[in-house]
Every structure is written in structure tokens, then in C-alpha cells.
Amino acid sequence: MQIGIDQLAFYTPKTYLDLVDLAHARGEEPDKYRIGIGQYEQAVIPVTQDAVTLAANAAVKVVNETNRDQIAMILFGTESGIDHSKSAAVYLKRLLNLPDNLRAVEIKQACYGATAGLQFAHDYVRLHPDKQVLVIGADIARYGLNTPGEVTQGGGAVAMTISAAPKLLNLDNETAFRSEDIMDFWRPLYRTEALVDGRFSENVYIDFFKTVWLDYQRQTNRTIADFTAFAFHLPFTKMGLKALRAVLPEADAEQQKQLKTNFEASRQYNRRVGNLYTGSLYLSLRSLFDNAVLKPGQRIGLFSYGSGAEGEFFSGTISEQFDAQQSRQRFSEFFSSRQQLTMAQYERLFSQQLPDHDVLLDVTHDDARFVLAGIKHDQRQYLDRNKA
């Protein structure tokens, strides 16, 4: 029985910053960001969007009347949770009008949370092949204005349905994972911006990738020759390129060329959106599906990494039903419709934060279906414009 990713959708607001403008404003050469970091643009998230609304705006693209009653679980990976106690998945379940007889759980381990959800979903569907699981990765990456991490900010959400007989990717059963208590990135409960030891985190990322890649090879007896492409967690796209270069010598010249070409396809969306934390790997996978020349049966390797730290290498084969044409068109339309912000607009939007008390937000500048309208009696007020 084949189990894997049936649908994979993405959402981020239309407001974005061109990193050439950011470089000029911060006294840096644009190529430091465009080539050295591998980023061109980054999404800027308004105060009327949070992890829940981002997830809902992505999930409505994969949840409809044909599969609504099949969904037995929501697994919501995020490190941008809105409550110390209540799961973001419960809010999402209501916004999507899903049945009450399902599980709704939030998962946290830095950028790895959505992958944990994917693997749990895989095991569940194996036992319940008539059901589907909705897996979410939704985050807002914030490091602060005029900080070293500013260039790697961003945000958005991916939504995946995991099912039997999937239309996109059949997941292999074998997987290799590793976890260690490492302080390369963290955000204490009292902070809205993350703390990161950048160079150390890059080294840990590469070390984890090489370790789980070797473990995967020992388990499966597969080699790099068995892979058409790799998709990576991309906090910034140069990071994935560094990981790919660590294993390229294992491939012959022809395959090295193919792997590099497909990596370029896999980072097209990420370099224009920025860091998604839990959703980053899966936006890269979506970009690979849409921008590479792929065929059913080809094997894709995926590397997930969450600082703190946890890493996993797993794989899957392209489904016989694979067709990326509609997704490719939607992304093309999305990028052409975005609103570029000036530096002043970006800094003003970035600095708007929810207060610690009740507030009514102006949602007229946010055209999303789901928005955060404010706080009342310490409860977030979500608006579905289709029901307003």
C-alpha cells in the first residue's frame, strides 16, 4: 500500500520586501544577500495574520467537500504558537468547519514540527487507509530590525493531506533521524524574536545532514545514484546548497549536474518568500514539483532540520498521478500580484505587534479569507470573510 502526500498547498500574504532595498538600507552589497545568502525577497506578515490564519488560508486549498469527512486528524507544526495551552490546531479545526470526531494537536520542535506530523500521519494512515490526515507547517520568522538575522525573515504556511494512493509523493518506509540538546537557535517564552548562533547552527545543520544521510544509506543500501533530487529545509537557500555540496562528490558528473539543476528548481519559491520555519522544507518540495522536470517513479530525498536540534532524512517516489501544472500556474499568478513594500512600510508593518490587552484591528488592508480581527476578553477573534 502506498501512503504519502496527496495534496500540498501554500499561503503567505502578498506584501513583500525586495532584499536589494534591505541591503541598501543596511549598508550592504545586494550580492551579499542575493548570492551569499541566496535570498531575493521576503514575505512581510501583517499583524492581522498569525499562525492560525496563515494555516487556514493554506488549508482551504486542500480541504473541501470531497475529503472533509475523511480527515481524522490535524497535526499542526509550529514554533509561532498563540497560546501556552490551547492548540492552534483546535482553532483551525473550527475555521475549516471540520467534524468534531477528530484529533487536533500542535507539535513543537523548532523547524522540524511539520515533519514529525508527516511521519505520525504516515503511520496513522497505514492503519486507517480510508482516512486522511491534515498536516500543517505555519510560522512567522522574526529576528528583529537591524539584526544579522533580518535577511532570513519571512513567514507563511504549508498544508498537506496525507493519504493512501497519494497524487504527489509516495513515502518510503525507511527514515533516519537524530536529536541532540544543542543551543544553536531558541526563543524564550518572553521574547517575540528568536536568538540564534548563526555560524554554529549552520555547522550543526550540515553535521546532522551527513549523519542521517549515512544512517539512511546503511538502512536501505541505496546510494546517491538512486535519487533524482533532494529537497532541504531552507532557512535561507544557500544553506541547502551547502548541504547538497557535502554529498555531491558521491555522484558522477552527469548526476551532479542533474542534482544541481533540480536544487535550483527547489529553491525558486523559498528565495522569494523567505524563512518559513516548519513549512520551509515543504515549500521547497512544492517548488521542486512545480519547476523541475520530473517523472513518476523517480526518488526524491528530503532533509528536515529543527534547531535545538532534530534532523531527519527520508524519501519518496513521484506518484503515477503526479501533475504540477495547476500549482505552477497559481504560484505564477501569486508572485505577479504581490505588493512590494518600501523600507518605511516594511519597518512600520514589522513593528506592529498585538498588545497584551483587548484590541480591534483594521483588517481592510488584508485581503485574505481568514484574518485576525482583534482580541476580546483575552480571546483572539478570527474572521472568515466567506461567512461575514
UniProtKB/TrEMBL annotation:
Pfam (any one): HMG_CoA_synt_C
All copies of domain Hydroxymethylglutaryl-coenzyme A synthase N-terminal, residue ranges: 2-163
Keywords: Transferase
Active site: E79 (proton donor/acceptor), C111 (acyl-thioester intermediate), H233 (proton donor/acceptor)
Chain residues that bind (3S)-3-hydroxy-3-methylglutaryl-CoA: Y143, K242, N275
InterPro entries named among the record's database cross-references: HMG_CoA_synt_C_dom, HMG_CoA_synth_N, HMG_CoA_synthase_prok, Thiolase-like
GO-annotated molecular function: hydroxymethylglutaryl-CoA synthase activity
Start and end residues of each Hydroxymethylglutaryl-coenzyme A synthase C-terminal domain: 258-346
GO terms classed as biological process: acetyl-CoA metabolic process
Family per similarity comment: Belongs to the thiolase-like superfamily. HMG-CoA synthase family.
Name the UniProt record assigns to this protein: Hydroxymethylglutaryl-CoA synthase
